[in-house]
Amino acid sequence: MAGGRHWSRWAAILAVVVIAAALVVTHRGRDRGASPLPSGTTSPAAATSPFTGLPQRAPAPVLAVKIDNVAAARPHTGLTKADLVYVEEVESGLSRILAVFSSHLPPRVGPVRSARESDLELLRQFGRPALAYSGAQSKLLPVIAGAAVDDVSPAHAPQAYTRDSARQAPHNLYAAPAELLAAAPSASTSHDIGFRFGPSPASGTPTTDKTVRFPSARVAFHWSAGQSRWLVSFDGRPETAAEGGQLGPPTVVVQYVTVRASGYHDRWGNSSPYSETVGSGRAVVLRDGRAYDGTWSRPSAAGGTTFTTTDGRPLNFAKGQVWVVLAPKSG
User: Fold this and answer.
1) Cα distance between residue 82 and residue 196, in whole Å
2) By Cβ atoms counted within 10 A, which residue in 95, 115, 305, 307 is the most buried?
3) So what's the pLDDT on residue 42?
4) DSSP for 159-226?
5) What is the DSSP letter of 95?
């Protein structure tokens, strides 16, 4: 009996040691595999980002930031961490950026500028994302207040913004994405918006350069085979990130849309363009050093945008950051 009790005690001690070791291994494995998460989120199961096709932790809140894109605003900060980068036309034929973050958050992003009416339509496919912007035309503010976005402009999240004294206003407003999302606890999380990732179609035209022209601006992409990405230039100059290196995604989508005048104007009386992203039209997808002709379709504002080849098959993107240029149909 004494020998049996002795063996039982050692067996119990051994079981405790095995369980503790297993917990340590699991904890260390989680630490090594962890990907960046916005502050305040839980530790959910691994998933694939519907925006990049790469692994991420889910759910991941969606943050959209309106970013300046004139020469005085460059180089940009934080764009290397964006999942999606939209380029759109604004007043006087210039361009502006709407960057969407979910998988990763940079410590700082900017310079932040004002929102436009067409941003609200574009963002409806994301659910109710957080929207960071510096302000808007006074008549547009009530429209934004009633839109399906969590407003994290300086009026609603002043603690998230700072001015950079090394730059001139209005090109010097920057925001901290983690603080922006902390002010938008109900922001929607990432979900399928129609993008598909995978092998490239069998067709395609070998392409090394593509330029999209707006009335007073242009954005160009040059294929780098060595880096497997499309290097970005704005208005004839390579776009270097403030963090270093030239911006360049593996996939570029040129989405040809109707650009019309909205009912809003800037302070100088210039009409604000409205890029229509509901409907359908022509698209060109750049990936792997080739250009693929296709079609985009978004039947309703609440739905996502799908891209198909000319014969109706899904037009797969390469995994990684995606740039979408909302190009005028005549461009």
Assistant:
1) 18
2) 115
3) 36
4) GGEEE-TTS-TTTTEEE-HHHHHHT-TTPPBP---S--BSSPPS--EE-SEEEEEETTEEEEEEEETT
5) E
